[in-house]
Structures are given as structure tokens and as C-alpha cells.
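Is this the right way to post C-alpha cells for a design question? Let me know if I should format differently. Anyway, here goes:
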């Protein structure tokens, strides 16, 4: 399996790819305001590349539970200079984390090669067309409702089956819109309209998601369900995130999205080695 993104093509398999999170927002749940200047953001992006990230995911709108939507022009003001500067200084693949077609279009022009949309291209009806025309890679994420309301009593009969069915439907819509099959990846949306138990079910259910035959991306670093499990505050959840990402490697994840690249890289190396040894013992 491969993932074709504008300017990059990734062989999908073992070990997982690392996508580093670069939020240039004042209000993200973990690092809001930390990289509000272009220089600080680019410096952090380059640091993540040195630590092992092959993709840097630039986001200009917080999608934490309860977040309000950022205006389009403000989102572009935050993200485009960072993408442009990062592209000038590195050949790393750049992703734009946005729900808005105009932001995605301008980000691709500035140097992004991936559109990471938490709404699976449903928030803006023009997004599928932008994705198809641009040739960018696309990440389709499952989210129940909108960021402002998604954690209000999320109920599922079978969370893994329902999320898989939703993502299968969105994959087909994208194909009909002219987006290349090899450009698509999927994300079950850990923490986006799910309880702690539902998040854990989705992590255990990665093999079922992989049956859709597209790369499975998991992003869970520092998220609130880790805090509920451990009792740790957001800035003290690195160990929990590394442990959780280790489990996803053993379940067959293809792409890991994280704030903590260095620590996650080390965990992936160890987990991958253990996974290969486990597979030898089961033959």
C-alpha cells in the first residue's frame, strides 16, 4: 500500500510514519500560544523533523472539545507564512489541518501536500473539489457533531463498526469526487465525540479499520482520555501517550500523529522490534 501526496509518496507498512503536530493557534488544548510567531513555529517544525517526523501537520484552528470556529482569514494568517517558511527550509511533507476549502487551497499553494480534515470533507462542500484538483493527500477523520458539541453524550451501538462504516462511506464519496484512491488515509478520531471506553475500543479495533485498505492514522498524544485514565494534567501526559502509541503499533497502525516526536519515535522502534518478534513466535 502507498499513500500518494502532492510532492511525496509514502510506502505504507512497518514501521509507522510519524506526523508531528504543529499548532499555531492561541487556544489549542495542549500547546496553544507556544508557537504563535513564524520563527518559533518553523523552529519547532524543523526540530520535529530532526527528531523523526516525516510529516509536519500545521493547524491554525483549535478543534478541542468546546472550541469555537476560527474565521477563515485568521486561520490563513496563522498558517500560510509558517508553511511557506517551512517549505523554504525543508523538504519534509507538510500537512494543513483544516476544515475550510479556501485555507486548504492556499496552503497547498504555499507548499503543503496533505489536507487533514477532522470533518472528513463534510464541513465545507467545496473541500472535495479542492482536494481532487490539488492532488494533495487527504486524511478523513471521524467526528460526531462539531468540536463545540462533540462530547455531549456520544452513544454508539458498536463504535468500531460504526466508525468503520462511516469512513468507508466517506472514502467512496471521495472517489466519486475524483480524489485518487492512493491519496486517501483514514483516522477514527480518537477523542472526537467518544468516551474513554469508546476510544480504547477504537485503538483495539485498528485491524478492523485497516480492512478498508487505506492507511490508518491515529492521533492521541496528550488527549483528555489519557488524563482520565492516569489522573495527569495535559502537560504531564507524555508517558501515557507514548504507552498508547506503543499499543497502536502492536495493533498495526500506519501513521502516528503526535506532539512528542522524539519520545514516540523511540517507542515505535521498540514496539516494532517486539511486534516482529511476536510474529515470528506465532508462525
Amino acid at each position: 500500500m502507498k499513500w500518494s501526496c502532492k510532492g511525496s509518496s509514502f510506502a505504507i507498512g512497518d514501521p509507522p510514519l510519524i506526523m508531528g503536530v504543529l499548532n499555531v493557534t492561541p487556544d489549542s488544548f495542549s500547546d496553544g500560544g507556544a508557537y504563535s510567531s513564524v520563527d518559533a513555529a518553523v523552529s519547532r517544525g524543523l526540530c520535529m523533523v530532526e527528531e523523526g517526523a516525516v510529516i509536519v501537520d500545521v493547524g491554525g484552528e483549535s478543534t478541542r472539545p468546546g472550541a469555537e470556529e476560527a474565521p477563515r482569514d485568521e486561520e490563513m494568517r496563522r498558517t500560510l507564512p509558517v508553511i511557506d517558511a517551512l517549505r523554504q527550509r525543508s523538504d519534509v511533507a507538510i500537512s494543513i489541518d483544516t476544515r475550510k476549502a479556501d485555507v486548504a487551497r492556499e496552503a497547498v499553494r504555499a507548499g503543503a501536500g496533505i489536507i487533514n480534515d477532522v470533518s472528513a470533507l463534510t464541513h465545507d462542500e467545496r473541500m472535495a473539489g479542492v482536494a481532487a484538483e490539488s492532488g494533495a493527500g487527504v486524511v478523513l477523520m471521524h467526528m460526531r457533531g462539531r468540536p463545540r458539541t462533540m462530547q455531549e453524550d456520544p452513544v454508539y451501538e458498536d463504535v468500531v463498526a460504526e466508525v468503520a462504516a462511516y469512513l468507508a462511506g466517506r472514502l467512496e464519496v471521495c472517489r466519486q469526487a475524483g480524489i485518487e484512491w492512493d491519496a486517501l488515509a483514514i483516522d477514527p478520531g480518537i477523542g472526537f465525540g467518544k468516551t474513554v471506553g469508546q476510544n480504547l475500543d477504537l485503538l483495539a479495533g485498528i485491524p478492523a479499520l485497516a480492512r478498508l485498505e487505506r492507511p490508518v492514522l491515529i492521533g492521541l498524544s496528550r488527549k483528555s482520555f489519557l488524563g482520565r485514565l492516569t489522573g495527569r494534567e495535559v502537560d504531564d501526559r507524555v508517558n501515557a501517550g507514548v504507552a498508547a502509541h506503543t499499543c497502536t503499533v502492536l495493533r498495526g497502525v500506519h501513521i502516528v500523529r503526535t506532539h512528542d516526536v522524539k519520545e514516540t519515535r523511540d517507542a515505535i522502534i521498540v514496539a516494532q522490534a517486539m511486534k516482529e518478534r511476536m510474529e515470528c513466535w506465532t508462525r
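Format looks fine. Someone answered above. Worth noting: Residues 15-282 form a domain with the TIM Barrel fold (CATH 3.20.20.20). The chain has one domain: 15-282.
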